[in-house]
UniProtKB/TrEMBL annotation, chain A:
NCBIfam families according to UniProt: soxA (TIGR01372)
Ranges of residues in domain GCVT N-terminal: 588-855
Protein name in the entry: Sarcosine oxidase subunit alpha family protein
Species, as recorded: Falsiroseomonas tokyonensis
Keyword Oxidoreductase belongs to the record: yes
UniProtKB/TrEMBL annotation, chain B:
Pfam (any one): SoxD
Name of this chain's protein: Sarcosine oxidase subunit delta
Organism per entry: Falsiroseomonas tokyonensis
Superkingdom, natural source: Bacteria
Lineage, top ranks: Bacteria, Pseudomonadati, Pseudomonadota, Alphaproteobacteria, Acetobacterales
InterPro entries referenced in this protein's UniProt entry, alphabetically: SoxD (IPR006279)
Length: 965, 83
């Protein structure tokens, strides 16, 4: 055990048991998995991506490149989880990754022996030939050998949520700068959101032992939090990572609501995805310590110095008792002090000849670490003097990288500051100010002052008048730094997670990959799940050196969201599976379900497809019965899904004349006309009916599929093209339940449910009227027919739909579904979805004469293009023949089945119980001339090759006498 | 992105639908075919300020003419097509 007897922010009264690779351990509440592993003396926690080298824990937070584990099991299994951010809970189960058969003995570690062969660009150079081998052989092999954790294969049992929020000031990061900023902004009355990725607020104050106002810094943190928690306009979001800065002050964040619990309680989501719109943003995300690349710097036990003192102070976990601190500046000396105070034997290796003496430890000035020893963990450190020091932990302090990612997500390029040896934020997105260590102000006093000023300014910019904070007193720690990025030698790792070494980068430069973006892709530097948080600056420095340029000149690669990996669930929220989008049900849905209906998705709608009766053995039985019932007696169909639009106003007729290809202004009140609309490019947009309810009021119907599109089209035509027209357009789709009643007995049935006169004289074909129905309902009757039978559509308020359906049933009509509807319309040759496919003209559909020649309308001009009036275009015809399937291609009999011979395709097909044969509709070149001839029907996809007879598209009652009867 | 709707205030782009470039004025009914071709098919694609049509479909349903910089997404303004 390396847990210190006292200290740390863990709760020693609350032990937490967990397993790692099947063995049981114990930690405490407040631990992360990483701190608990260290406290149990475990240093080896994973194998590297390419060489399978043993790896331990490097860092303290989300920047961790090495210690990736598979967390939890079953549907909750989560690969590539950083042990440094996984909060310990009772019963936590974790496994190491990318090793076989075990972490301590990994056969793939043999890759390490071939290290020189697996250098930069290895895949590109080696697996070139033959190219077909890439998918079949090389990639599967590489994927097995090189890799990360395994994703869960069972469905995720947890719930996720989306949240939208607005605020005056979003503060990212709750370290000293972020807390000061939040307090300064909140006191002005501004609405503040403070987001912190850690589960505890305080940032580096949790990991360092510092004083504010002469007392422990954590006292100040507690005092600030107490005030913030009592301000109603402040939202504190711990466990929340702001992962992306998007346009116009929009930020994406993910809150790990229940990741710290064994399972979320039933009322709690696992994670919550936030979209935050902020007037102003203070980015106070701190900084992350960078490594120094030297041979063997990846051995378990080699750690970030700042992390080492964080484990001591925050978790009471001592990473080693024999410590070497390799520091390029004063910051590492704080770690040396912490180690010494915790009882470790400490040697400081400082490349600065002027390195200060430190009480209670040995300081080797002007020296460097050039190697490490130890099989599965560090046992000794080699210095350039030749001296070897026995050690079980090597703390490395290479300087600090400001966490400026969000400042660069909108394209702002970081700027190299040679004096601080760090990239600083360039031009952040509008509304963002960067404060504290993220802006390169590394000392505590500077962070507090910077944060307070930024928070106040942000609140003022957002319209709140605040007053400056009384600045707390804190020290300016010594921050001397001599930039040191690497020490010469082999196997000096830059990107731990992708196994990129100093040699790889030098090789890339020699081979001409001098641009930072090219070198990145060639070596894969910074392309792992940690996105090079610890690796990039060291890599750039090495590339700069190898290409003889400065770091500023070399520049950085682009920063893009997300800052840390984001669970897809947090982005999807509740919109998964059946809830992916809202389901639309008609007013008759429940009624239909009670009467045996099954349902089919039609866009977002669920429509009754047929109404099965006891004894029917399959869907065809039901559909055939329904079709015959309509043709022989009467049936009714729920057509509430049709788009319904009211167009009202003095200029309503003028607008409809403009959007319909045919004329509507000549329609008399009380009459209905079939109409087609074109797109401006001359193709058919949609068809439907237009009923004139009054001189200035029209009721327009659209197809189900195009309802939203036609509504938008009408609004466009009015607002953009004809804004001078005095007209209002309203979608009334949901305001009416609409039922089609069809069949030779339809009038008799109708007469039993309405008090209106429905005689042919009072309600002729293509007429409409307001009607009273039995039971006191009010509604409308439209005499129109889609089936070719005597037919009506009845519109009633949705709440009256079931009563109407009950009465129609009692009057002798039977319900029919969309399948029967489809058969009836194919038998009648009406255009439907297969023909209104966006590529057909009015002429193709046999409707060419509907195009008005006496008025302007949308699509008129381009419908006259030569290609759109070419007589050879495929036109609507009927087909009769066994085996017809929608999508089959049409060829001249005997013609080879090649694209050049293609004459068209089948757009709809069904079994016609009236004709007792399979019929279809098709778009066929020179189709009208082919009526009566035979055509080859070729369906390569489903293996059909047969013949059909070309027919006129109207199979039933071509004269239309039934409709008018 | 945020679109400043003149009727509803600044709203998230997810509430809107866009058809891209604002078309030029619709030709007169008797305009030659070439004018119709240009009107329907040809659009500028500037790197910079760009007039676009957006409809606030999940709000007031008004069609808006939005001036947006294609390089930075900065929205210079939005006005209703029908005023």
């Amino acid at each position: 055990m390396t847990r210190l007897a006292t200290g740390g922010l863990i709760d020693r009264m609350q032990p937490r048991r967990f397993t790692f690779d099947g063995r049981g351990y114990q930690g405490y509440a407040g631990d992360t998995l990483a701190s608990a592993l260290l406290a149990n003396g475990l240093r080896l926690v994973g194998r590297s991506f390419k060489y399978h080298r043993p790896r331990g824990i490097w860092g303290l937070g989300s920047e961790e490149p090495n210690a990736l584990v598979e967390l939890r099991a079953g549907g909750r299994q989560e690969p590539n989880t950083r042990a440094t951010t996984a909060e310990l809970f009772e019963g936590l189960v974790a496994h190491s990754q990318n090793r076989w058969p075990s972490l301590r003995f990994d056969v793939m570690a043999v890759n390490g022996l071939f290290g020189p062969l697996l250098s930069a660009g290895f895949y590109y150079k080696t697996f070139m030939w033959p190219s077909s081998f890439w998918e079949k052989v090389y990639e599967p092999l590489i994927r097995r050998a090189a890799g990360l954790g395994r994703a869960a294969t069972a469905p995720d049992p947890d719930r996720y949520e989306r949240m939208h929020a607005h605020c005056d000031v979003l503060v990212v990061g709750a370290g000293p700068a972020g807390l000061a900023a939040a307090l300064a902004a909140a006191r002005s009355g501004a609405r503040v959101i403070l987001a912190e990725e850690d589960f505890a607020l305080g940032g580096r104050l949790l990991a360092d032992r510092q004083e504010i106002n002469g007392a422990p810094a954590l006292d100040w943190v507690a005092w600030v939090l107490a005030e913030l928690q009592n301000l109603p306009e402040v939202t504190l979001l711990p466990r929340t990572t702001v992962f992306g800065a998007f346009d116009h002050g929009t930020y994406g964040a993910v809150q790990r609501v229940a990741d710290h619990l064994p399972e979320p309680p039933p009322d709690m989501p696992r994670q919550r995805g936030w979209t935050i719109v902020a007037k102003r943003v203070v980015l106070a995300a701190g900084a992350v310590e960078r490594p120094i690349a030297f041979p063997g710097n990846d051995r378990p036990g080699v750690m970030s110095a700042a992390a080492v003192r964080g484990y001591i102070h925050r978790y009471g976990a001592l990473p080693g008792r024999h410590a070497v601190v390799f520091t390029a500046g004063d910051d590492g000396l704080r770690t040396a002090t912490a180690l010494r105070d915790a009882g470790a034997e400490v040697t400081v290796v400082d490349p600065r000849p002027e390195a200060p003496a430190m009480p209670g430890m040995r300081v080797v000035a002007g020296a460097r670490v050039v190697g490490t020893r130890g099989r599965l963990g560090l046992s000794a450190v080699q210095l350039d003097s030749g001296e070897r020091i026995a050690a079980d932990v090597l703390a490395v302090a290479g300087g600090w990288n400001p966490t400026l990612h969000l400042s660069a997500h909108q394209g702002g390029r970081p700027v190299w500051d040679a004096a601080q040896a760090a990239f600083l934020p360039g031009t952040p997105p509008p509304g963002m100010v960067v404060a504290g260590a993220a802006a390169g102000r590394f000392t505590l006093a500077a962070c507090l002052a910077d944060g307070a000023a930024a928070g106040l300014q942000a609140a003022r910019d957002a319209g709140h008048d605040g007053r400056p904070l009384d600045l707390p007193q804190a020290e300016d720690e010594p921050a001397g730094l001599r930039a040191l990025y690497h020490v010469p030698g082999r196997k000096a790792f830059v990107d731990f997670q992708h196994d990129v070494t100093v040699d790889d980068i030098a090789l890339a430069a020699r081979e001409g990959f001098r641009s930072v973006e090219h070198a990145k892709r060639y070596t894969t530097l910074g392309m792992a799940t940690d996105q090079g948080r610890t690796a990039n600056v060291v890599g750039l420095a090495i590339l700069a050196e190898a290409t003889g340029r400065g770091i500023a000149e070399t520049g950085t690669t682009m920063f893009r969201p997300p800052y840390t990996p984001v669970t897809i669930g947090a982005l999807a929220g509740a919109q998964t599976g059946r809830d992916f989008r809202p389901v639309r049900r008609t007013p008759l849905h429940a009624w239909s379900a009670r009467h045996g209906a099954s349902f089919v998705d039609s866009g977002a709608w669920q429509r009754a497809e047929w109404y099965a009766r006891p004894g029917e053995t399959g869907w065809r039985d039901s559909v055939d019965r329904e079709v015959l019932q309509v043709r022989r007696a009467a049936g009714f169909c729920d057509v509430s899904t049709l788009g319904k639009i009211e167009v009202v106003g003095p200029d309503a007729a003028a607008l409809l004349d403009f959007v319909y290809a045919n004329t509507m202004s000549t329609l008399k009140p009380g009459r209905i006309r079939y109409g087609i609309m074109l797109r401006e490019d001359g193709f058919v947009l949609d068809d439907g009916t237009c009923a004139r309810l009054a001189k200035d009021r029209f009721f327009v119907t659209t197809t189900t599929a195009n309802a939203a599109r036609v509504m938008q089209h009408l609004e466009y035509a009015h607002q953009v093209l004809r804004p001078e027209l005095d007209v209002a357009i309203l979608s009334v789709t949901e305001a009416w339940a609409q039922i089609a009643l069809a069949g030779p007995q339809a009038r008799d049935v109708l007469a039993q449910v309405t008090q209106a006169d429905v005689s042919n004289a009072a309600l002729p074909h293509m007429a409409c009227l307001d009607a009273a129905f039995v039971g006191g309902l009010r509604g409308r009757l439209y005499r129109i027919s889609f089936s070719g039978e005597l037919a009506y559509e009845i519109g009633v308020p949705p709440e009256a739909a079931e009563a109407l359906a009950d009465r129609l049933l009692a009057a002798g009509a039977v319900p029919y579904g969309t399948e029967a509807l489809g058969v009836l319309r194919i038998e009648k040759g009406h255009a439907g979805g297969g023909e209104l496919n966006g590529q057909t003209t009015a002429g193709d559909l046999g409707l060419g004469r509907m195009l008005s020649t006496t008025k302007d309308f949308i699509g008129r001009a381009l419908a006259q293009r030569p290609a759109l009036v070419d007589p050879a275009r495929p036109v609507l015809v009927g087909l009769r023949g066994a085996g017809l399937r929608t999508g089959a291609h049409l060829l001249a009999p005997g013609a080879a089945a090649v694209t050049e011979n293609d004459l068209g395709h089948v757009t709809a097909a069904c079994w016609s119980p009236n004709l007792q044969q399979t019929i279809g509709l098709a778009l066929l070149a020179e189709g009208r001339d082919r009526i009566g001839t035979r055509i080859r029907v070729f369906d390569a996809l489903r293996g059909h090759d047969g013949e059909a007879e070309v027919a006129a598209p109207v199979f039933i009652d071509p004269e239309g006498t039934r409709t008018r009867g | 992105m945020r679109i400043p709707c003149p009727f509803c205030g600044e709203r998230d782009a997810a509430e809107f639908l866009t058809i891209g470039s604002a078309p030029p004025p619709r030709p007169a009914a008797d305009a030659p075919m070439a004018a119709w071709h240009d009107y329907v098919h040809l659009r500028d694609n500037p790197a910079g300020l760009h007039a676009e049509l957006w409809q606030h479909i999940h709000g007031c349903r008004q069609w808006l003419r939005v001036m947006r910089d294609t390089r930075t997404h900065v929205v210079a303004g939005a006005e209703a097509c029908r005023r």
